Amino acid sequence: MANLIELFIFFPLFMVERKKFNDSLTMGLENLEVINSQLHGWKNNKKILLVIGVIFTVVPAFNFLGLELAGAINGSLVLKTRILFTLLFGFIILKEKVTKLQMLFSFVLFFGLTIAITQGSFNLLEFNFGIIILLINVIISPIGHSFAKSLLDRSEITSFQIIVIRNLISFIILFSTYFLFFPLENIKLFLDPINYFWFILMGFNYGFGLLFWYKTISYLEIGKAMIIMSFTTIVTTILASAFLGEYFTYFHIIGMIIMIFSTIIIIKQKKE
């Protein structure tokens, strides 16, 4: 439902943007080549947009399932390792510069995660199924973001277009598969009016989060943007302890300190 809410929010903005582009072409303003590319460039990138749509159909579903199984604190720490894979795919797909020190401290960051998840035992069996799901998630999501940034860098698409297209693809896939596997089960979720408050809240939250994200990577390297976003882990941990009653241990603190220190080193390297 969040996908549908996002479509309701951003499709009108998408149409306003297209009208603005068409008006600019009609009036013969400057940068006509760029405007024409942003207006019609998506037609030459249908396969990439389909891949992006499929990736970000899987990612939210994996997020919900993984966080439910792993818990909010462990889950948020796992999601912080996206930095490692964002740097990797930013280098492979976008040819962004990655230093040896950045890669070293990306693995140090993963070491801090291991301390937190295993509570210092380093027993990898402590990585429950939810953590495995989230690790798969953090591997595939940077691929989608890297493809999206490549289109933005070439001015072949806009932030509004990406949001509308990926949410349309996600809605079609999720809606059809949900009723394929659960034709009658959980139908009461859609009959309870209280749930629509949460659907709308999620739609606004995710939608404008996406808009700010795509606007950010339009101006910054994707690795730097992901590093900045990684500090949400601290907020998630505090909220999980305060509202969900999850137990925050000394090993969580040690692991988080290592991860934050690693992030600072990576940021410093990016600035240099």
UniProtKB/TrEMBL annotation:
Record's keyword terms, sorted: Membrane, Transmembrane, Transmembrane helix
Native organism: marine sediment metagenome
Residues spanning the membrane: 48-67, 73-94, 101-121, 127-148, 160-184, 196-214, 226-244, 250-267
Alphabetized PANTHER family for the sequence: ACYL-MALONYL CONDENSING ENZYME-RELATED, SOLUTE CARRIER FAMILY 35 MEMBER G2-RELATED
CC terms in the record's Gene Ontology section: membrane
Pfam family membership, one: EamA
Protein name, UniProt field: EamA domain-containing protein
Signal peptide limits: none
Domain EamA, first and last residues per copy: 9-116, 129-267
